[in-house]
Amino acid sequence: MQDPQIAPFKTQLLKWVGTKQRFAHEIASHLPPDFGTYFEPFLGGGGVMATLQPKRALGSDIFAPLVEIWQTLSTDPGLLVAWYAERHAQFEAGDRTAAYEAIKARYNQSPNGADFLFLCRACYGGVVRFRRRDGHMSTPCGSHPVISPEKFARRVALWQVRMAGARFACLDYRHAMAQARAGDVVYCDPPYAHSQSILYGAQSFRLEELFAAITACKARGVRVALSIDGTKKSGDVYCDIPIPPGLFEREIFVNMGQSMLKRFQMSGQRMQSEAVRDRLLLTY
Ligand SMILES: C[S@@+](CC[C@H](N)C(=O)[O-])C[C@H]1O[C@@H](n2cnc3c(N)ncnc32)[C@H](O)[C@@H]1O
Prior knowledge:
Layout (H helix, E strand, L loop, with lengths): L23 H5 L9 E3 L6 H6 L4 E5 L2 H12 L1 H17 L2 H14 L3 H10 L26 H14 L3 E5 L2 H5 L7 E4 L18 H13 L3 E6 L4 E2 L2 E2 L11 E6 L2 H9 L10 E6 L2
Helix pairs in contact: 3-4, 3-6, 4-5, 4-6, 4-7, 5-6
The site of S-adenosylmethionine has 23 residues, from helix 2.
């Protein structure tokens, strides 16, 4: 079933915490090669879709500013470049932190893809966080250099070709998955149940409901692959996942790659044997 043709694609368009892009080719190689439409209902940074380059796809996410970016990539990539260039110029013109804070304040006043695009690239550690209290983005300005508009434009050109088969929508995953028909494939990369409640806009998410949606897909002849970080410790809690018996046919451990392993070792955590693999559950 493994498709050796899928090559790694490591150039990122957005910085997105939890992105699977570095080992997306491994995930994609376990998807069936013969699907109709590819659905990715937790699209995030889009690394898996861009690696797979499906001919026909629906990419969706509940986070509207993010979806606006993907929609603009497909309908008006030049505008995406202009959004970035405009904010980059403002950022480099004087006090970077002040410029970043002004963009962030405008975003928090009225969340939009144009500001979010720049913020996700310039924020500290590339980790977009939202305050529970008011839902405002809270991440401070990063100290890393942000990429030039020219470099960003080259990335847009690369990504636009890779995502050309997809349309994008702002949807709850249940509405997206309900559109899948027999012969289609769904890849799910949900927010981590324990550790990601303040990321991605602090949406509430219940794994049990996702399992119900996967069960319904399977009954209609839709094949579903689910990424779960079931071997990872989150704080002191092991992610104990109540997987319905018989729902999945196979379980694959996907390597998270050398750099992730190194990072854990360097930060002195004892996660070497626990966190280097990501679970991929397949209904087929
Ligand atoms: C782990 S991330 C996906 C990362 C992605 N695979 C990548 O490589 O960048 C989870 C995503 O699920 C989205 N999300 C959270 N709750 C959702 C819901 N109810 N319906 C659809 N998307 C949701 C978040 O906005 C976030 O982008």
